[in-house]
Structure formats: structure tokens, C-alpha cells
Amino acid sequence: MEKLLGSHLGLEDFIFAHVKGIQKEVEVYKSEDSLGLTITDNGTGYAFIKRIKDGSLIDSIKTICVGDHIESINGENIVGWRHYDIAKKLKELKKDESFTLKLIEPKKAFEIGPRSKPGKSSTEKIGTERGTLRLRSKGPATVEEMPSEIKTKAIEKIDNLLELYMGIQDTDLATTMFEAGKDKVNPDEFAVALDETLGDFAFPDEFVFDVWGAISDAKRE
């Protein structure tokens, strides 16, 4: 909190709080392998829809919105699951069949801007660093540095590969895969590290090879 109240955050940094609002149940017909959504979780058991791809299957269902908390899939409560497990669950749902999502829409909030100091312009930046604020259920809040442009591009490539092979995008999962391979020297080492970290996904060999290619390209830049 010292960093939060000090000068480590700039005007372009945001804090999001999810306050439970409208509860809704949506039936989705899985006509395509790719759902076109990105999910994340807050580390304390609550998963959210982070992004919806334009023109995707989920995008066509206007009752599903960015920020919605996913409470259950086909009646199975998923509170406490990590986003990796939810991605796997959604991937395993059969094509050309319907499934039901129970969602909780967050209450709409307002934006709070920083106060300007006497004699200072309200457009002045507070601090010079950019980062992501992580609030944890245990331990202190931390501000993590923004990823480099090279890392960001690699994660984006891996995220696109996830959509191609799994039918779902998940930036956090893509980041975990990048971290597992960034210090490896060959695809065999990467495959072992990936199996140790995310073995439950049973990624196909061609997918692992393509991900290694994205990581290798990033390391050469």
C-alpha cells in the first residue's frame, strides 16, 4: 500500500474492483471450436471474462460481457478454480452442443482521477513508472513492472496459438508458458518444463513446437 499511496503509479495505471451485480444464466450453442474469449482470475478463486474477440461466437451473444464473473459451467460451480482449469473445461465441451454459463455482472462503477496539487496542472503525471498492481489475499500488495515489448509480442503469439489449438485465448496461460520456456535452450527442455507446469493440458507435440518457435523468435530479437 505504500507504493499505492506513493508515487509508483501513474495516471495510466488503473485499479479494478468487482462488486457483484446482476446474476444471469446464458445458454451457448458451441457451433465453433473457438469461443473467442480471454479469461483471467484474481488469484483468490474468482474467474472473469477479460476480453471478447470481435466477430467471435461469444461476441454474438450480447448478454455476455467483459468483466462478468464466471460462477458455473453446466451447473458445476467453478469458484476456486484457476483460469487454466476453466480454459481446459471450456475446451473439452463438445462442439455442436449447448452449454450453460452462470455469470455475475459487475456493478457499473465510476472513474476516480487523482487530485491535483495546489498550483499544479491536473494533467501532470504522478510518478514515472508503469506497472500492474497485484492485490493478494495474503501478503503485501506489489507493483510489477510492465513486460518488455519483445515479451509482449511473444505472449501475443502464444495466445493466438492457444486459440488455434484450444479454441480459447488466455493471456495469463500464455504468460505462464512463456515463463516456462524463456530460459530453456531447446524444445526438449521446454517440453519437459511445460509438462511439469501444465501437464494436465496434454498439449500436442506440434503445438509445443510452435510455442517454442514463438519463444525462440522473441529471444533472438
UniProtKB/TrEMBL annotation:
Belongs to the GIPC family. Signal peptide: none annotated. InterPro entries: GH2_GIPC, GIPC1/2/3, PDZ, PDZ_sf. It comes from the Eukaryota. This is (raccoon dog) hypothetical protein. Pfam families: GIPC1_GH2, PDZ. It comes from Nyctereutes procyonoides (Raccoon dog). SUPFAM superfamilies: PDZ domain-like (SSF50156). Residues 25-105 form the PDZ domain.
